[in-house]
Design goal:
The protein contains 13 helices and 23 strands. It is α/β, with parallel strands linked by helices. The protein has two domains: 28-418, 3-Layer(aba) Sandwich (Alkaline Phosphatase, subunit A), CATH 3.40.720; 422-527, Arylsulfatase, C-terminal domain (2-Layer Sandwich), CATH 3.30.1120. The chain starts with 16 loop residues before the first strand and ends in a 16-residue tail after the last strand.
């Protein structure tokens, strides 16, 4: 396990102690603690309507959620992949300090990576997870569904949660997500298609079943039941929805919401990666295009988002009908974003906006105002210290994030830029090129106007001006007029990640002319070839 030294500033506790009154800010240590409803939605990108969404997306319950409190429109994940992102959220330790910046290498070996094996990391061995923190401070801690990294049956059955933090897990801590019915093989296995599917779960099809047969629906049923019960202690209730994680297979009615003829083309730039990093997953996109499936997959992802939205709505109904609605902090988050063909990529595993930007919502009774919006970049590692402060406790010293409490009342409050880290590896990011052009730990900094990315192993830098280039199509890192901006972002990254170095050498495999960087041996998508199948 790589361990990269980091110099994170410890969060400063805003000492506004309060009892739960309308003009209050945070709970005092001796007042009755608020409950916490902690909701995770897997693989949800910024296509939902509160984040300006995909045209025609139907997410009325995310709209409802946005009206309840604060929407963070520029929240960034700590790492663009399930396991490190969720470990960072649940421990409060940023991946650049722990060195956990990719999923475990468990190809065909899931069960050997079950349980909290991340505890073997010396940085994380003794940290209190967020659930342990709440349990220590007098809470009943309940969870259902995917909170830590989980692979759901029939995929496999693992849960990276530390069992010490939970009083109960639905269905149980060893199998944390109910069994999920799959689409029939005749709908998702296509032996006559061009190329080879890159993943057996990279599938999309409607299911001829009702919502109550879906795993997420059953998780919400359980959560609704818990919200009907009287709990003697304050409640920390974690609810994890697996959709819209692939496979994109949800009931037919959600597909019917998005007729193919109504789905607009996704905006892309041809040869977009010519001035950028090759993430090594372009054959996924080639497979989709060669088989004329792009709009069908967009339809399936939108359907999966609307299914997740419907389950969120059922959960909000149960919450608002419960005895806890006036004394509960609500936080809803996703672990990372999702490419649906942008940058010729699918899933996540990159450091661009599609992977790094995530939905994040918070509602705190007596503190947040309805329909509030925070545009400042924040990180998902900020959630832990924020919740700790909101219940009147001092955030643990190991937390690397900053409390969001100042932003909950003042959207213009100062906040550090957000860092996202990822370890590009030969398994997840297998490049079609003959030589290594940048595999290894890499980092991005998101500021209000810019995204800066650095790939240390090949020296490549990327800079995108979000004021004029929200799609991150034009890498302007090597233009003379941006030299100071690049240096500012370098300096910030170096504050957080010790030991990073930059040189004046042209990145390996690239050429620079008049401030424009280009890959020397760039291949268009049509030139890429599928790997030979060995029998």
């Amino acid at each position: 396990m790589k361990t990269i030294l980091v110099n994170f500033k410890l969060p400063v506790l805003v000492t506004l102690l309060w009892s739960p009154l309308k003009d209050s800010n945070v709970y005092s240590a001796d007042s009755k603690k608020p409950n916490v409803l902690f909701v995770a939605v897997d693989d949800l990108n910024d296509w939902i309507s509160p984040l300006d969404g995909f045209p025609g997306v139907k997410t009325p319950n995310f709209d409802r959620l946005a009206k309840m409190g604060v929407t963070f429109t520029n929240a960034q994940c700590a790492s663009p992949v399930c396991s490190p992102s969720r470990i960072a959220i649940m421990t409060g330790v940023h991946p650049v300090r722990s060195g956990i910046i990719n999923n475990p290498p468990y190809i065909n070996d899931y069960l050997n990576h079950d349980g909290p094996e991340w505890r073997q990391n010396p940085v994380l061995t003794d940290v209190f997870t967020i659930d342990q923190f709440f349990k220590k401070n007098g809470y009943t801690t309940l969870a259902g569904g995917k909170i830590y990294h989980t692979v759901a049956p029939p995929w496999s059955v693992i849960n990276q949660a530390d069992p010490d933090g939970w009083d109960f897990w639905f269905p149980n801590i060893s199998a944390p997500v109910p069994y999920q019915i799959r689409a029939s093989d005749k709908l998702i296995r296509h032996n006559d298609w061009v190329g080879r599917s890159p993943n057996p779960y990279f599938t999309w099809a409607p299911l001829p079943i009702d919502d109550n047969k879906m795993a997420d629906s059953q998780t919400v049923d359980w959560a609704a039941y818990e919200l009907q019960q009287k709990h003697e202690k304050p409640l920390f209730l974690a609810v994890g929805l697996f959709r819209p994680h692939m496979p994109w297979e949800v009931p037919q009615k959600y597909f019917d919401m998005y007729p193919l003829a109504s789905i607009p083309d996704l905006k892309i730039k041809e040869n977009d990666l010519e001035d950028a990093f090759d993430h090594g997953r372009r054959l996924w996109h080639k497979y989709v295009l060669d088989n004329n499936q792009w709009k069908k997959v967009i339809q399936a992802y939108l359907a999966s988002i609307s299914f997740a939205d419907a389950q969120l709505g059922r959960l909000l109904d149960a919450f608002e009908d419960s005895q806890y609605k006036d004394n509960t902090i609500l936080v809803v988050w996703s672990d990372h974003g999702m490419h649906i063909g942008e940058k010729e990529n699918w899933e996540k595993f990159t450091l661009w906006e599609e992977s790094a930007r995530v939905p994040l919502f918070m509602m705190v009774p007596g503190l947040t105002k309805s329909k509030s919006v925070v545009e400042t970049p924040v990180s998902t590692v900020d959630i832990y210290p924020t919740l700790a402060e909101l219940i009147g406790e001092v955030p643990p010293k190991h937390c690397d994030g900053q409390s969001l409490v100042p932003l909950l009342t003042d959207p213009t409050a100062d906040h550090d830029p957000a860092i996202t880290a990822f370890d590009f590896d030969i398994v997840t990011n297998k490049s079609p090129y003959n030589r290594d052009l940048g595999l290894g730990p890499s980092y991005t900094v998101r500021t209000v106007d810019y995204r800066y990315i650095y790939y240390p192993l090949n020296g490549l830098e990327e800079l995108y001006d979000h004021r004029i280039d929200p799609n991150e199509w034009d890498n302007i890192a090597y233009k003379k007029e941006n030299k100071e901006i690049v240096q500012e972002h370098r300096n910030y990254l170096l504050e957080k990640v010790s030991g990073l170095k930059w040189t004046d050498e042209i990145p390996n495999g690239y050429t620079i002319e008049n401030g424009q960087i280009k890959r020397i041996d760039f291949m268009s998508l049509i030139e890429l070839e599928y790997p030979a199948v060995h029998h």
